[in-house]
Amino acid sequence: MRIVLLVLLAALLCVRAAFAIDPTTLPDPQQQARYQKLTHELRCMQCLNQSIADSPVELAGELRNQVREMVVAGKTDDEIRDYMVARYGEFILFRPRFSARNVWLWFGPAIMLVIGAFIAVRIIRQRSKLVEQDNEPLEEEAAGR
Amino acid sequence: MKNRFIIAPIAFAVLALVLLIGILRAPRGERIIPSVLIGKPVPAFELPNLTNPGTKVSSKALQGKPYVLNIWGTWCVTCRQEHDTLLKIQQMNEVPLIGVNWRDEDTLALQWLSDLGNPYSQIAVDREGRLAIDLGVSAAPESFLVDANGVIVHKHSGALTMEIWKRDFEPLIAGRAPAGS
Questions:
Q1: Phi, psi of B22 (to 5 degrees)
Q2: CB B104 within 8 A of CB B127
Q3: Does B37 touch chain A (CB under 8 A)?
Q4: Cα-based torsion angle of the residue sequence B44, B47, B50, B53 in order, rounded to the nearest 10 degrees
Q5: I want to staple B58 with a disulfide (CB 3.0 to 4.6 A). Which of A15, B46, B163, B172 is the partner?
Q6: Would you call B103 an interface residue with chain A, using a CB distance cutoff of 8 Å?
Q7: How far is CA A99 from CA A17, A106, A113, in A?
Q8: Coil, helix or strand for B124?
Q9: What does the alpha-carbon distance between residue B75 and residue A144 come to, in Å, rounded to a whole number?
Q10: Are strands B67-72 and B142-146 parallel, antiparallel or unpaired?
Q11: How confident is the model over A112-141, as a mean pLDDT?
């Protein structure tokens, strides 16, 4: 019984591979790796929350073709990203680029952290000063002497 | 130490204001991704002419007069909804409509035109979707207004309506027509 189950599970694993959306394999493993990486970081413009590697939509397939052709033609990753951004805008990149427009998104958290740290340090300093000033013995202590 | 009690409400008010501005400025359309192609030259194309086999539809030949590129396909339901508006726009004769038949079959496309009427002055066949990719098309229908210099001045995603045409396209056509024409 257990063996039957195992065989069934193994069969299911194969099914998953057979239903993979993108069966592309490029002869050059290095190109294949780049192709995989790029298609995973480009957004499918019709489905919004999938990469073109994961989407069964036709447009995603066409963009994968485009990426494959450019990889095979020897274009660099940046050239391929530029090509996509020139047509679909920054939105197609899952990993947004650094630009003047989004600079505060990149640095905002760090700036907030610095401001927060500054305020915290000031408060702590002020409070420790209070402790230094308040060096009168407590009533009970005084009474004990 | 009084200002400690003032800073918090002020900070809150500033944050609320920033968020409010963000909400008010957010576009309320169905799609909010701006086209990066506005203000850029229309990508060069030379594609087979659907209704006139053997000839080509090319960006070069079209240059010199404003025109509208309309991406459509017979598989596209919204294109069918849009079709009547396109016929009306064609009747107004303000600007030629150039169809881009996207990822379609010629026989189906020709059947569609004979059934519903042909609003286009020329139709380019983009079977593999190359021009659609160059135009950054994510879903049909999309319409691009190209001015006399071959620059894309406006893009509309989704079905055109008369209201949208009058509001977004006509002012740009009137303003961009070359003098003396």
A1: -60, -45
A2: yes
A3: yes
A4: 130
A5: B46
A6: yes
A7: 39, 9, 21
A8: strand
A9: 94
A10: antiparallel
A11: 84
Say how far apart CA A34 and CA A74 lie, in whole Å: 11
Helix (H) or strand (E) holding B70: strand B67-72
Strand order in the sheet with B152-157: B122-126, B97-102, B67-72, B142-146, B152-157
User: Is some CB atom of chain A closer than 8 A to the CB atom of B36?
Assistant: yes
Name every chain B residue with its beta carbon within 8 A of the beta carbon of A101: none
Q: How far is CA B36 from the centre of its chain?
A: 12
Residue of B nearest to A83 (CA): B134
Determine, for residues B133 and A89 on separate chains, whether the beta-carbon distance falls below 8 Å: no
**How do residues A28-39 score in pLDDT, each as one tens digit?**
889 999 999 999
Quick check: A87 and B36 CB within 8 A?
Answer: yes
CA angle B134, B137, B143 (to 5 degrees): 105
CB-count burial class (<10 Å; 0-12, 13-18, 19+) for B147: buried
Instruction: Provide the ipTM.
Output: 0.72
User: Cβ neighbours of residue B12 under 8 Å, at least 6 residues apart?
Assistant: none
Query: What is the per-residue pLDDT across A41-100, written as a single tens digit (0 to 9) for each?
Result: 999 888 768 899 988 888 899 999 999 999 999 999 999 999 999 999 888 998 888 777
Residue type at B39 in one-letter notation:
G
CB pairs under 8 A between A and B: 37
User: What span, in angstroms and rounded, lies between the C-alpha atoms of A115 and A99?
Assistant: 23
State the Cα–Cα distance between residues B107 and B105, nearest whole angstrom.
6
